[in-house]
Amino acid sequence: MAKVIIFGIMDTAELAHYYLQNDSEHEVVAFTVNREYLKEESFRGLPLVAFEEVETLFSPQEYHFFAPMTGRNMNRNREKIYNEAKSKGYSFVSYISTHATILDRSVIGENCFILEDNTIQPFTTIGNNVVLWSGNHIGHHGQIKDHVFFTSHVVLSGHCVIESYSFFGVNSTIRDYSHIAQGTLVGMAASITKDTEEWGIYIGNPAKKVPGKLSYEAY
Questions:
Q1: Domain containing 111 — which CATH number?
Q2: Which helix or strand (DSSP H or E) is residue 180 part of?
Q3: Domain residue limits at 57
Q4: What are the helix (H) ranges across 137-200?
Q5: What is the pLDDT of residues 163-205, one digit of tens each?
Q6: Which residues, other chains included, contact 63 with Cβ-Cβ below 8 Å and sequence gap of 6+?
Q7: pTM beyond cutoff 0.90
Q8: CA distance 6 to 14
């Protein structure tokens, strides 16, 4: 059992608290946010402390960290907190639902948030700081790199490589052997049939690239 500090007090953090308390061996002991957002002293009946000083109150030698944030700014917000917590000396837990289908949990990195009804087939690896919302199919012999976000009901076919900072909208579909370049945003219900370009937005079926490149600050 790990004693865990959760970053955030929005919906995703509240869900993480629920899942960890009800479907894991871990114990949530506190929440933390950046000082500018610290308006209360508690959340969900637990202490709420400033992230800037969290390590002085909850020692990284005794507590673990979890930052299950959204995909805003193409996962850069979540990456920033992940890196800052790591620099404070924290190790991370991952939440993997007991209702997800995965035979080898060792292929999943740290600070991952994997909800119910995900199917992760053999010989696919998942990096650090990855979110798989409910109900995705992750095909065999693939690789998902760090700081990626899948929403729900995404079908990722076999032998795909997903580069960092990518984001997949609800009901999107990725053809087998696809290479999804860094910072790709796949729109809702889009069908990817060809490799993508870095920081591109893809919509439609078959998916077409929107002119220009994505500025992650704008997302």
A1: 2.160.10.10
A2: strand 179-180
A3: 3-66
A4: none
A5: 999 999 999 999 999 999 999 999 999 999 999 999 999 999 9
A6: 2, 3, 4, 5, 29, 90
A7: yes
A8: 9
